[in-house]
């Protein structure tokens, strides 16, 4: 697509080489005929040959500038798309984590420290504390919280897979 756009912007089409790729190093017909005529002329006609080479060089440079400008725009667009997608996923994940905290299934380190400080006994392992805290919740509440989290997780995973 890019090579077609580059070729069409110069007003001529590039020819295909042996492997099917376009080649911008081949001059358009009017420049090629001018170059051939200049090559067969005497040294007095060296100025037109230099002029046609200059025209060819400036067209190639224009194509290169256009190509790299388009590449920069495409890369910037892809980067913006990825940044938007990552931001959306971070927001969904944060919402899911907040819901898990509210449901009493996920605990922040600050919450665990605060709870451990209020207990009349010492618990050194946070994993044991989390297991103990989740066992205190009624089964119905755990089921409802897990269903809600599962629905949010399904939406989150669906966003990742699309």
**Low-pLDDT regions:** 1-39
Which sequence of strands runs across the widest sheet?
A: 1-2
Number of strands: 2
Strand content: under 5%
- Mean of the pLDDT scores? 75
Verbal overview:
The protein is mainly α and 162 residues long. The protein folds into 2 domains: 1-79, no CATH class; 103-162, no CATH class. The chain is 74% helix and 2% strand. The protein contains 6 helices and 2 strands. It has helices at 2-9, 29-40, 46-102, 109-118, 126-135, 139-161, and strands spanning 15-16, 22-23. A two-stranded antiparallel sheet has the order 1-2. It starts with a helix and ends with a helix. 1% of the residues are buried. Residues 1-39 have low confidence and may be disordered.
Short description:
The chain is mainly α and 162 residues long. The chain contains six helices and two strands, in the order αββααααα. It has two domains: 1-79, no CATH class; 103-162, no CATH class.
Topology:
Blueprint: H1 2-9, E1 15-16, E2 22-23, H2 29-40, H3 46-102, H4 109-118, H5 126-135, H6 139-161
Helix pairs in contact: 1-3, 2-3, 3-6
Which terms summarize this structure?
single chain; mainly alpha; 2 domains; 162 residues; 6 helices; two-stranded antiparallel ribbon
């Amino acid at each position: 697509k890019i090579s077609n756009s580059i070729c069409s912007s110069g007003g001529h089409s590039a020819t295909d080489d042996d492997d099917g790729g376009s080649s911008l190093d081949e001059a358009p017909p009017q420049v090629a005929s001018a170059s051939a005529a200049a090559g067969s002329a005497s040294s007095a006609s060296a100025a037109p040959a230099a002029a046609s080479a200059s025209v060819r060089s400036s067209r190639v440079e224009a194509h290169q500038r256009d190509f790299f400008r388009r590449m920069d725009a495409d890369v910037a667009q892809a980067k913006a798309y990825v940044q938007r997608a990552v931001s959306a996923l971070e927001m969904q994940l944060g919402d899911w984590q907040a819901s898990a905290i509210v449901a009493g299934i996920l605990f922040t380190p600050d919450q665990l420290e605060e709870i451990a400080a209020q207990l009349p006994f010492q618990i050194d392992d946070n994993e044991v504390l989390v297991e103990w805290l989740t066992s205190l919740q009624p089964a119905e509440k755990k089921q409802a919280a897990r269903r809600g989290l599962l629905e949010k997780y399904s939406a989150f995973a669906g966003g990742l897979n699309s």
